[in-house]
Amino acid sequence: xxxxxxxxxxxxxxxxxxxxxxxxxxxxxxxxxxxxxxxxxxxxxxxxxxxxxxxxxxxxxxxxxxxxxxxxxxxxxxxxxxxxxxxxxxxxxxxxxxxxxxxxxxxxxxxxxxxxxxxxxxxxxxxxxxxxxxxxxxxxxxxxxxxxxxxxxxxxxxxxxxxxxxxxxxxxxxxxxxxxxxxxxxxxxxxxxxxxxxxxxxxxxxxxxxxxxxxxxxxxxxxxxxxxxxxxxxxxxxxxxxxxxxxxxxxxxxxxxxxxxxxxxxxxxxxxxxxxxxxxxxxxxxxxxxxxxx
Amino acid sequence: xxxxxxxxxxxxxxxxxxxxxxxxxxxxxxxxxxxxxxxxxxxxxxxxxxxxxxxxxxxxxxxxxxxxxxxxxxxxxxxxxxxxxxxxxxxxxxxxxxxxxxxxxxxxxxxxxxxxxxxxxxxxxxxxxxxxxxxxxxxxxxxxxxxxxxxxxxxxxxxxxxxxxxxxxxxxxxxxxxxxxxxxxxxxxxxxxxxxxxx
Lengths: 294, 199
What we know:
The structure holds two protein chains of two kinds. Chain A is of the alpha/beta class. Helix content of chain A is 21%, strand content 24%. The termini of chain A are close together. By secondary structure, chain B is mainly alpha-helical. In chain B, 50% of the residues lie in helices and 9% in strands. Chain B has helices at residues 4-20, 31-64, 76-93, 105-121, 123-130, 158-163; strands spanning 171-176, 179-184, 189-194. A three-stranded antiparallel β-sheet of chain B has the order 1-2-3, with no helix packed on it. In chain B, strand 2 and strand 3 form a beta hairpin. Chain B is globular, with a radius of gyration of 19 Å. At the A-B interface, helix 3, helix 5 and helix 6 of A face helix 3, helix 5 and helix 6 of B.
């Protein structure tokens, strides 16, 4: 059965309540997250591990957000710790800024970035299970979403074979991949990682991955759906490259004026999201339907 | 765990070329025969390389088995202590290890050709390798040096990894500028390296 989804079908199915934000004064109409019964709720941070003031500010904003949107886990999109990775760095750059969330029972699930040491996979609070790539399904009782964490710094034949086996075996309604290097990006500093795209996109399309989240670019961007896959870049949880988005046909919405994170709720066949700035402003929001295969 | 089968397939790809070449006329060595000879030499070198790699990994595993397992390391100091203890054990066990012990001259030539083939087919891969966020020439490469967390890694393009012999989990290839490092991922040290892997 063909799974090719045309741009026209995507356009017909997408319903968005959002405004592309590049000007700091603009305010997106807020799409409220529904807090639906049985939904999967999580937050997303990328390039977070600086230990700096901005990381702590974003962390506080995340904690505040959890008061109204009780997410259960956080996806980390790599560059979880910058610079040295001594014991005190794990504390200063991770467990201290996110202490309130950790104490509240929130779990973190990390992907490896280009600044991360490989041994982070053994650090229990990152929930990597000793692996550089892994997957998990939520909720455990009746899985709705399969999350697949990839090591984009080292996309070996073994990892690609594992990815294909994992996707082929996945029975969840939603499949979401997350990794560090974006395969679609409007960033001036890095841009789309086309070498990775050639390896990953065919699998994403073949096995109907619904969304892919990446960091590395230090801003927020929601990309136009590509071959039926939603792409987000959320790499500004501590780092920022102000003004780095080159607006073009790839961008559906972008925010590169301040740090940011995401809140996501998957309820039935809809992915609801908000991108929130360090100051608490909603800079992008919307509801994306699960795109059907052909 | 990467199987021997996957690794042998990579070597076999080099050997396939031999079957396509006609028998050589005695005393006459044309371009095809030369290429076949080179492919055969590369395949032998890479096979030997994998043998040396396995010796290194066997040692690594014996030494790591003497340390408490890292599974479920809740405390970051356990992670660092394990890494440092393993690195110390490896350095002591391989006293006198020199550059070229794993990446012999024949191996470096074969790998250089394999990388060149990959880059010839994937023009974007070179740019991806060299897209780094630091000055790689500031790094002092030497055997058993710590592969510092101050060194953000360049992406290893899938097209290049597909051309290279697959390594066990304990080792990985990393480019540092145009040089290729064999990195011990558990001990986080340089097991060996070759210069000018990309030309």
